[in-house]
Amino acid sequence: MSEEIIEETEGKEEAGQEEKSRAKKPGEFGRTIKTYLDKGVEASVKGIKNAGAALSEFGDKSVIRIDIAQLKSRLEKKYQELGECVSEQLMAEDETITKDSLAVSEKLASIRELKDKIQEKEDTLKKYGK
């Protein structure tokens, strides 16, 4: 009988040691969860940075497109001004008109300048890969 008590006591001690070893596993479990959470946070941060870069690029493209539209509108007005200028000079009886005429050459210079600006903006937009 004393041997049975000793075996029972030893069995209880072994069970206690198993419980202690199981108690260590929740700590490992916590570390594992923390590792996964850290990886999740890293992936989220990376995703947010990528999304931020994409939004920034989209915003830049939009601004460039708006600038191009405004420049084209100004170019159209310059063409209208040139047409009015030429029309007025042609209607005048003793006026001749050439592209070297002061009024015409000024209008043509501003038209060339606007075309160059539009081309620069379009080239910049092409760099983004539309």
Notes on the structure:
This protein is 89% helix and 0% strand. With 130 residues, it is mainly α. The mean pLDDT is 80. The termini are far apart. The relative contact order is 0.07. The chain is built from 2 helices and no strands. It has helices spanning 2-91, 102-127. The longest helix has 90 residues, at 2-91.
Describe this structure in a few short sentences.
With about 130 residues, the protein is mostly helical. Helices cover about 90% and strands about 0% of the residues. Helix 1 runs antiparallel to helix 2.
What would the keywords be for this entry?
130 residues; mainly alpha; 2 helices; 89% helix
Number of DSSP strand runs = 0
Low-confidence stretches: none
The sequence of SSEs as H and E is HH
Q: From the helix content, strand content and strand pairing, which structural class follows? A: mainly alpha
Specify Rg, calculated over alpha carbons: 40 Å
For the termini, the CA-CA separation is: 90 Å
Average pLDDT confidence is 80
Count the DSSP helices: 2
What percent strand?
under 5%
Helix content: over 70%
Q: How can the largest sheet be summarized?
A: none
> How does the overall form come out from the CA principal axes?
rod-shaped
List the helices and strands and how they pair.
Elements: H1 2-91, H2 102-127
Helix pairs in contact: 1-2
